[in-house]
Amino acid sequence: MEERIINPSDGVYAATQDYVHAIEVTHASRFVFVSGTMGLEASGNAPVTLEEQLKLVWSNIRRILMEADMSTDNIVRVTSYLRDADYATDNQNARTVALGNRKIPTTAIVVETLTPDWMIEIEVIAAA
């Protein structure tokens, strides 16, 4: 698989330091589309803090990707669903830690989650 960052510097607003406008993926043989994943414990319970849920959501995503013989290095797209706009910075920081130096297209949307205990839900697309 090959990736090419598409991040124009003129004619469109500038991307911030934590993401890029687009990634072109060529020669990929597999894609994994991960459904919205919450920061829940294996028991299905939601921790009470955003910090704990953010740690768990990325742990859960890593585990799902591992089952597909992939890792966060294979992620080419992230969409975050936040229960509150005030969660944006913490979400951004957690994503940056989870992905390391990898910058990918990402979107954060403020929504009403199905259960008030769920503060964050993240879906990803991975390619190999």
What does the secondary structure layout of this molecule look like, with pairings?
Elements: E1 2-6, E2 22-26, E3 31-38, H1 50-67, E4 75-82, H2 88-99, E5 106-110, E6 120-127
Parallel strand pairs: 4-5
Antiparallel strand pairs: 1-2, 3-6, 4-6
Helix pairs in contact: 1-2
What would you say this structure looks like, in words?
- The protein is of the alpha+beta class and 128 residues long.
- It contains two helices and six strands.
- It has a single domain (2-127), classed as 2-Layer Sandwich (60s Ribosomal Protein L30, Chain: A).
- Helix content is 23%, strand content 30%.
- Strands 3-6-4-5 form a four-stranded mixed sheet, with helices on one face.
- α1 (50-67) runs parallel beside α2.
- The longest helix is centred in the middle third of the chain and has 18 residues, at 50-67.
- The radius of gyration is 15 Å and the shape is globular.
CATH class value: Alpha Beta
What share of residues is helical? 10-25%
Separate helix tally: 2
Terminus-to-terminus distance: 6 Å
By secondary-structure content and strand pairing, the structural class works out as alpha+beta
Q: Which outline best applies?
A: globular
Strand content: 25-35%
The CATH level-2 architecture is identified as 2-Layer Sandwich
Regions with pLDDT < 50 over 5+ consecutive residues?
A: none
| Largest sheet composition | 4 strands, mixed
Strand neighbour order, sheet with most strands: 3-6-4-5
How many separate structural domains?
A: 1
User: What Rg, in angstroms, do the CA atoms define?
Assistant: 15 Å
CATH homology-level superfamily: RutC-like
Annotation, overall tally of beta strands: 6
CATH topology-level name = 60s Ribosomal Protein L30, Chain: A
Average pLDDT across residues?
97
Order of helices and strands: EEEHEHEE
